[in-house]
Amino acid sequence: MLRKNAKRIVIALLLPVGAILFYSLSLIPGLVEHFYSNGVAKFFISAVSIVTGAIPVSVAELILILLAAIFIGYIAYTVSNSLRQKENRRKIIMRFFLNLFSAVSVAYFLFVVTWGLNYNRLPFSEAAGLDIRPSEVSELAQVCEALIVKANSFRDEVSENSRGVMYLPEGYAEAFRRAHKGFDNASVLYPQLGGSYGPPKGILLSTLMSYSGLTGVYFPFTAEANVNTDIPHPFILSTACHEMAHQRGYAREDEANYISYVACTMNPYADFKYSGTLLAAINSMNALFRNDRESFNRLYELYSEGVIRDLRYLNEYWRQFEGPVQEAADSINDTYLKANLQKDGVKSYGRMVDLLIAQYRRDGLK
Q: What is the dihedral of CA 150, 320, 62, 263, to 10 degrees?
């Protein structure tokens, strides 16, 4: 039995090997930044992304659907086989779990070597030359006010639907074709954001994705930036740029949010500028709400009527998906982030505000 399963056992060892590699390289972020994030990984991701980008639908979604079907079929086969061969039931069940563990080991090892090590690269603040340090609540309030003023201004330049909510009149696919322009412009200041990649893609099963509370997902094995296109339009474009930040090797969620803001506001189109600024304003105002409720209430009154309608529609949209599925997905996402050394878990999304304050200190929110 041992000799027969020796290959599976060796494959299963890829999981601890991958874990050792990941946690060892977390000690030398400069090496990861130079040789991995801006070297072999960037070349690999770009090449794969260009290939998959030529396919109009999400290859990642097709793979996940296929894998789910295979997994369900394998479970049914194992149960049927164990019922027919009762004398070999123990071997059949052991083989099932060993095969499953082997598959997980291979997937984890490939995840680490093709993209996962980006969690260990240098912080984006170093590439951007931003000084991250403790800040006063008054500074946070100033950033919130500046973002609200910008959001109100950009909101006047976008289209509305019959409900008075911002929408993309030519659809998300057309907008996705313009998404790279913000990164092209941003790469002049931050070369790490440059390069050739496939465009973001909408998910066909986006409504089901909303039940998990996800607005987008980067799939490292196909190097695709996948977007939940069922979410309200004001947030589709910033989500796309968030996933494109992952595509460019920035794995940390807080940094991907900030990079999304940068790429959106440097995009020549008003819909991107508004979406990115609204993302930054929401994150900053949430931080202000936790620290100074009075200032939050005062600044909330500054939002224009159009922005208020967009925010209310966002709350209405997500309210319909609240439940145990979303809670379970949040728990899984929190565990994933912590496993990849994002110690704050889901709360790490809020650290985007530190980068916004640092930028505001240096040169204002242009």
A: 10
Name the token pair of 109.
């090892």
Instruction: Tell if the pTM clears 0.85, that is, is over it.
Output: yes
pLDDT at 326: 45
Torsion sign, CA atoms 208, 213, 215, 218: negative
The gap from C-alpha 197 to its chain's centroid, in whole angstroms, comes to 16
Are the C-beta atoms of 249 and 192 separated by less than 8 Å? yes
What are the φ and ψ backbone dihedral angles of 301, each rounded to 5 degrees?
A: -65, -15
Please state, in angstroms and rounded to a whole number, the distance separating the CA atoms of residues 172 and 21: 39
Helix extents (H) in the chain:
6-12, 14-25, 29-31, 41-53, 59-84, 89-114, 124-128, 137-155, 172-176, 180-189, 206-211, 236-247, 253-265, 270-291, 293-300, 305-319, 324-339, 352-363
Q: Percentage of the chain with pLDDT > 70?
A: 90
Quick: pLDDT tens for 121-139.
999 998 888 888 888 899 9
Smallest CA-to-CA distance from 248 within 199, 196, 193, 186 is with 193
Average pLDDT over residues 88-107: 87
Q: Are 349 and 257 in contact (CB under 8 A)?
A: yes
Neighbours of 120 (CB within 10 A): 23
In angstroms, rounded to a whole number, what is the distance separating the alpha carbons of residues 174 and 180? 12
DSSP-derived pairing of the beta strands 201-202 and 216-219: unpaired
